[in-house]
Amino acid sequence: MSKLKIAVQKSGRLHDDSMKILKEIGISVDNGKDQLKASARNFPLEVFYLRNGDIPQYLRDGVVDAAIIGENILIEKGNDLTIIERLGFSKCKVSIAVPKSSKANSLKDLQGKRIATSYPNTVNQFLEKEHIKANLHIINGSVEIAPNIGLADGICDIVSSGSTLFKNGLKEVEVLLKSEAVLATSPKISTDNQALIDKIQFRLKSVLKGRENKYVLLNVPNDKLEQIIDILPGMKSPTVLPLAQEGWSSIHSVINKNDFWNVIDELKANGAEGILVCPIENMVL
Ligand SMILES: Nc1ncnc2c1ncn2[C@@H]1O[C@H](COP(=O)(O)OP(=O)(O)OP(=O)(O)O)[C@@H](O)[C@H]1O
Ligand SMILES: O=P(O)(O)OC[C@H]1O[C@H](OP(=O)(O)OP(=O)(O)O)[C@H](O)[C@@H]1O
Ligand SMILES: [Mg+2]
């Protein structure tokens, strides 16, 4: 029987959340700290623990069928590869930054200057688009130190909380792109393995949808039912059940995480009581 080969970062920023999401879609794999390959116990799947930066080439060559990878790495090294699902973790930006004292306020102001980066293709793409000429210094890590040691006038690197920029006396002047972990596939995937990745994708969608929503249960006097039902759309429509106490009902529904507190305020203002909120593991649509 054919097995799906999926790449996951061996160690680093993506590893733990990648393993967590595989677990949430019901796939149990041994922790790969000391192994480079592991088989899932309950799905025809092998996990390859690889460097994030090496994964685009493995996908292109068909060594692996799919991968959980930082979108920024795909943009840098794998523009030809297909993203099939955005996974919502390891969110970050790839930005241009300069010393706080610099007069530069955008990428344009770096015309003729030196930019240190680990993402030369990404920077070049933007420089070409804006018709700017700059000298790139390609370094693999600790990029933020480059202006302080006189190596560059600006940098292009990952920004998340902004604390590395702050600690190195830099200011962000331009966001080139936003990134998150994604599931990407190989152009060489076989038909059998495509069917397996379709299954994985279906499960991922259910988990991601569940994370976006919360399950709520609340008690409502029957004369307020209509107003409350209007506030709560639910998946189709809310479930309404009679309570043992006459004149009251229990309502069950699903609320999007982003609207959550506003909806709760409205429910309370319209007479809802005993509101319970639960996380949702999966929403199978
Ligand atoms: N500070 C951060 N906050 C959020 N996400 C980040 C941060 N730094 C990196 N990432 C994301 O996580 C991915 C992996 O980053 P990490 O630093 O672990 O490894 P890497 O040096 O890109 O890869 P590797 O060493 O495995 O080739 C990045 O490509 C990016 O998408
Ligand atoms: O805005 P912040 O929250 O400070 O995050 C940004 C920093 O995080 C990443 O480095 P990481 O810690 O992964 O170290 P690395 O350079 O060894 O990959 C990235 O290269 C930045 O330096
Ligand atoms: Mg890093």
Average pLDDT confidence is 95
Secondary-structure element sequence? Answer: EHEEHEHEEEHEEHEEHEHEEHE
**CATH-assigned fold name of the largest domain:** D-Maltodextrin-Binding Protein, domain 2
Report the structural category: alpha/beta
CATH class of the largest domain: Alpha Beta
- Low-pLDDT segments, ≥5 res: none
The shape is: flat
- Which ligands does the model contain, each kind named once? adenosine-5'-triphosphate, 1-O-pyrophosphono-5-O-phosphono-alpha-D-ribofuranose, magnesium ion
Strand content range: 25-35%
Spatial arrangement of strands, main beta sheet: 2-3-1-4-11-5
Q: What Rg is obtained from the alpha carbons, in whole angstroms?
A: 24 Å
Task: Please work out how many helical segments DSSP would assign.
Answer: 8
* Number of domains as seen in the coordinates: 3
CATH architecture of the largest domain: 3-Layer(aba) Sandwich
Biggest beta-sheet profile: 6 strands, mixed
- Annotation, overall tally of beta strands: 15
Helical content class? 25-40%
CATH superfamily of the largest domain: Periplasmic binding protein-like II
* CA distance, first residue to last residue: 29 Å
GO molecular function: ATP phosphoribosyltransferase activity
InterPro entries: ATP-PRT_HisG_long (IPR020621), ATP_PRibTrfase_cat (IPR013820), ATP_PRibTrfase_CS (IPR018198), ATP_PRibTrfase_HisG (IPR001348), HisG_C (IPR013115), N-reg_PII-like_a/b (IPR011322), N-reg_PII/ATP_PRibTrfase_C (IPR015867)
Protein name: ATP phosphoribosyltransferase
Pfam families: HisG, HisG_C
